[in-house]
């Protein structure tokens, strides 16, 4: 076992820079090539619908597997053990839902955005305004989370200042999307997925080699080091309702992410759309299974002490394992892969945001569906730059902030604002414009408000100072009491009547208990008890959509449902 | 009309909806989608329920140090993928054939 406790993580790493420059040059070359092929809106938003099912499967995987899943889950497994696995399962289970309910109708009915489908037989303007709001909020919250994550991770891995890292990521993502549109974005995602899957596979093979290709040995050593509890579910899931709510948001949020939904328009037909989900689910599932081995492997080979000393959240578990097993070369490679991972995700997000802005807001709402193609592309490009700059500014603004809640918020909004309206518009004949608009805004507002009132924001961020003050006070009370009790114990050894002193100790303990209770009463309380609002916000979005539709029939929309149904099932009239 | 983009409009929307092959393909797809969606929900929320209500079961040892919860978590991922495989297999072999048939009938 290599016993190097030294790590070069956080220092300037020429190997990482070399791999990264190679990646950037390749992807910029592709962008140059793609720019010459990006003429129409179909090229810019949908890569000319020429992406194959297999390619789109890889690109979907590249779009979805963020640095949070690559570094975060491995880190979570290495520090929390089994509890980390719960997340890797949660991130995957939305994909079958996309396949069974969404992918084929989406491809058959829409053109560039999921709002196309919701607006198919409803009033264009209000629907597009609402759906674009849902998309843009999801894109922006996710972008901020990615940007802050990118700055922090790149600072850790390359030793670059936070702001420089954010600027590099922002400028590259703008270049890909601005010049190469969906064609370049797709290839960035495909290359990233290939690198990530290849790198993780290699890391797992090297880890298993270390344990003589025996999982029994790996888990035995993990248990010896960290106890049996490490391989059992622990404290992550305490409240079943909270767990159920988080599960709903993860599952249906995946099926409501605009940058994921948009990818289904890049394939030629519904058959390829469905096929791409099969490949994507396979790749993503395989990758999450790999992260389990990486996480446990890092806990044993690197050790939790070193992992958490580099980054308290454990994010460096994977790269550290690579360094321990494959030295500087492998670490450099994985660091570059992490960089590429972030780039692919933010590019997909930016493109989705730009299309919501230009296709839905500009053409659909402002121009009432009438705009020249050139003008639409121009607006999309302006939106790309605008979004990119906004993301960089917000990323720098949120530096050092706790942004973990943003990922939860993204999925909660996607599951509440986007998914219910999309699903009902496809499946329910009596769904109306008012129902859709009310459903989208209800989901958006309730998810956002409840997150703000939840423990993750209301206690941990808004009332952070009160919380720390209370925690400090509790500690002070406990310390003082410990001192007093120690004094009593000392007296007891020389006292004539130890029973009396025992009584004093008991009294002291009781007094401290009530004192702590009093202090704890000053602890800021969340107004909404759950960490994730999915169960309420998604439920409300469905309920409001149904009620508004039932109370005001829309005969025109009902009449168009039969046509929608035929197109949805057999793809006649689908965009080519 | 539904077939407005196809070259020869031979059938009205109502005729297509009443077509036996169309009826068969739409009802089959609905059934398969609903069954698989329910299976996926049961699979995932069953896993969550085990974590919430029966931790000791997940903690019980399979062989050596490996607790039964580990293969169950990995199995949930694999089974989710298998479900998508079942859907693909059905769609490629049954659904696409019916779609082709209907589209030929209406000249799409």
Q: What does this protein look like?
A:
The complex is a heterodimer of chains A (576) and B (108). With 576 residues, chain A is an all-alpha fold. Chain A is built from 23 helices and no strands. Chain A has two domains: 14-404, Sodium/glucose cotransporter (Up-down Bundle); 467-521. Chain A has helices spanning 14-36, 41-46, 53-64, 67-80, 82-92, 94-109, 114-118, 124-158, 162-210, 215-226, 240-254, 258-262, 270-301, 304-310, 317-366, 373-397, 404-427, 433-453, 455-462, 464-494, 498-521, 534-551, 555-570. In chain A, helix 1 (14-36) crosses helix 9, helix 1 runs parallel beside helix 15 and helix 8 crosses helix 9. The N and C termini of chain A lie far apart (57 Å). Chain B is mainly α and 108 residues long. Chain B has one domain (13-105). Chain B is 76% helix and 5% strand. In chain B, strands 1-2 form a two-stranded antiparallel sheet. In chain B, helix 2 (20-53) runs antiparallel to helix 4. The longest helix of chain B has 37 residues, at 69-105. The model of chain B is unreliable at 1-8 (pLDDT under 50). Chains A and B meet through helix 5, helix 6, helix 10, helix 11 and helix 13 of A and helix 1, helix 2, helix 3, strand 2 and helix 4 of B.
List keywords for this structure.
heterodimer; A: 576 residues; globular; B: 108 residues; mainly alpha; two-stranded antiparallel sheet
Mean pLDDT of chain A, as a whole number?
A: 91
Biggest chain pair interface: A-B, 53 and 59 residues
Strand and helix order of chain B: HHHEEH
Q: What is the makeup of the main sheet of chain B?
A: 2 strands, antiparallel
Compact overview of the structure:
The complex is a heterodimer of chains A (576) and B (108). Chain A is mainly α and 576 residues long.
Secondary-structure map:
The complex is a heterodimer of chains A (576) and B (108).
Chain A: H1 14-36, H2 41-46, H3 53-64, H4 67-80, H5 82-92, H6 94-109, H7 114-118, H8 124-158, H9 162-210, H10 215-226, H11 240-254, H12 258-262, H13 270-301, H14 304-310, H15 317-366, H16 373-397, H17 404-427, H18 433-453, H19 455-462, H20 464-494, H21 498-521, H22 534-551, H23 555-570
Helix pairs in contact in A: 1-9, 1-15, 3-9, 3-13, 4-5, 4-13, 4-15, 5-13, 6-11, 6-13, 6-23, 8-9, 8-15, 8-16, 8-17, 8-18, 9-13, 9-15, 9-16, 10-13, 11-17, 11-22, 13-15, 15-16, 17-18, 17-22, 18-22, 20-21
Chain B: H1 13-18, H2 20-53, H3 55-59, E1 61-63, E2 66-67, H4 69-105
């Amino acid at each position: 076992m290599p016993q190097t406790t030294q790590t070069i993580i956080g220092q300037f790493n020429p190997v990482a820079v070399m791999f990264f420059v190679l990646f950037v040059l390749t992807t910029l070359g592709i962008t140059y090539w793609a720019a010459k092929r990006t003429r129409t809106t179909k090229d810019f938003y949908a890569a000319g619908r020429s992406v194959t099912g297999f390619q789109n499967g890889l690109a979907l995987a590249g779009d979805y597997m963020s640095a949070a899943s690559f570094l975060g889950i491995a880190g979570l497994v290495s520090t929390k053990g089994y509890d980390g696995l719960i997340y890797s399962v949660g991130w995957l289970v939305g994909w079958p839902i996309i396949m069974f309910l969404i992918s084929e109708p989406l491809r058959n009915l829409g053109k560039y955005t999921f709002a196309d489908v919701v607006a198919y037989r409803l009033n264009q303007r209000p629907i597009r305004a609402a759906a674009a709001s849902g998309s843009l909020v999801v894109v922006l919250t996710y972008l901020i989370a990615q940007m802050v994550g990118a700055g922090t991770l790149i600072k850790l891995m390359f030793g670059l200042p936070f702001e420089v890292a954010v600027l590099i990521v922002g400028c590259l993502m703008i270049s890909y999307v601005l010049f190469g549109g969906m064609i370049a974005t797709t290839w960035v995602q495909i290359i990233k997925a290939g690198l990530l899957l290849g790198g993780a596979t290699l890391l797992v093979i090297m880890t298993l080699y270390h344990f003589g290709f025996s999982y029994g040995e790996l888990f035995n050593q993990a248990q010896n080091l960290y106890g049996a509890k490490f391989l059992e579910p622990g404290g992550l899931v305490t409240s079943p309702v909270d767990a159920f709510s988080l599960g709903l948001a993860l599952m249906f949020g995946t099926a409501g992410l605009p940058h994921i939904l948009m990818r289904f328009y890049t394939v030629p037909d519904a058959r390829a759309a469905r096929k791409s989900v099969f490949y994507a689910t396979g790749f993503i599932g395989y990758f999450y299974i790999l992260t389990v081995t990486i996480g446990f492997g890092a806990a044993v080979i690197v050790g939790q002490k070193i992992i958490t000393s580099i980054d308290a959240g454990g994010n460096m578990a994977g790269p550290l394992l690579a360094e321990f097993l494959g030295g500087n070369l492998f670490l450099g490679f994985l660091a570059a892969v992490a960089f590429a991972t972030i780039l692919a995700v933010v590019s997909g997000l930016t493109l989705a945001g730009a299309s919501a802005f230009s296709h839905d807001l500009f053409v659909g709402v402002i121009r009432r569906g009438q705009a020249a193609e050139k003008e639409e592309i121009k607006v999309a490009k302006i939106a790309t730059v605008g979004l990119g700059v906004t993301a960089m500014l917000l990323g720098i603004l949120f530096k050092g902030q706790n942004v973990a809640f943003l990922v939860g918020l993204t999925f909660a909004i996607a599951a509440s604002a986007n998914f219910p309206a999309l699903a009902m518009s496809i499946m329910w004949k009596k769904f109306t414009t008012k129902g859709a608009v009310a459903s989208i805004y209800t989901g958006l507002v309730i998810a956002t408000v409840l997150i703000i009132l939840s423990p993750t924001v209301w206690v941990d961020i808004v009332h952070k100072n009160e919380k720390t003050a209370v925690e400090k006070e509790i500690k002070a009370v406990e310390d003082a009491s410990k001192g007093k009790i120690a004094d009593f114990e000392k007296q007891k050894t020389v006292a004539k009547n130890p029973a009396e002193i025992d009584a004093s100790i008991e009294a002291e303990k009781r007094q401290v208990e009530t004192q702590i209770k009093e202090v704890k009463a000053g602890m800021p309380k969340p107004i909404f008890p759950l960490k994730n609002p999915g169960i309420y916000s998604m439920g409300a979005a469905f309920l409001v959509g149904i009620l508004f539709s039932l109370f005001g029939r829309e005969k025109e929309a009902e009449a168009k449902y039969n046509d929608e149904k035929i197109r949805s099932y057999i793809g006649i009239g689908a965009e080519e | 009309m539904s077939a407005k983009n196809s070259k020869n409009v031979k059938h009205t929307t109502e005729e297509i909806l009443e077509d036996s092959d169309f009826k068969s393909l739409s009802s089959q797809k609905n059934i398969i989608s609903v069954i698989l969606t329910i299976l996926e929900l049961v699979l995932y929320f069953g896993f969550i329920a085990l974590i919430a209500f029966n931790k000791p079961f997940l903690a019980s040892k399979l062989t050596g140090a490996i607790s039964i919860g580990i293969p169950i978590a990995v199995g949930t991922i694999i089974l989710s993928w298998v479900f998508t495989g079942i859907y693909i297999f059905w769609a490629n072999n049954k659904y696409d054939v019916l779609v082709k048939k209907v589209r030929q009938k209406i000249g799409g």
